[in-house]
Automatic annotation (TrEMBL):
Keyword list, A-Z: Molybdenum
GO biological process, one term: molybdate ion transport
Full protein name: Molybdenum-pterin binding domain-containing protein
NCBIfam families, sorted: Mop
Length: 68
């Protein structure tokens, strides 16, 4: 797999919670957890399951940081 995105975090799926149309997928990336909201169809197409290795790929232009 080759992608132009540079923010690729390899980890292990710790949870997949399916909703009516969208699933929340949590990936442990070495002590920190990243959560993605993706369609149930994408979960099925990728065959995502707890314990599976996966990548969290983050589009940097959509990441926001805030402080008080």
């Amino acid at each position: 797999m080759k992608l132009s995105a540079r923010n690729q975090l390899k980890g292990t799926i710790v949870d997949v919670v399916k909703g009516a149309t969208t699933s929340h997928v949590r990936i442990d990336i070495g002590g920190a957890t990243v959560m993605a909201s993706i369609t149930n169809e994408a979960v099925a197409d990728l065959g995502l399951a707890k314990g599976q290795k996966a990548y969290a790929i983050i589009k940097a232009s959509d990441v926001m940081v805030a402080v008080d």
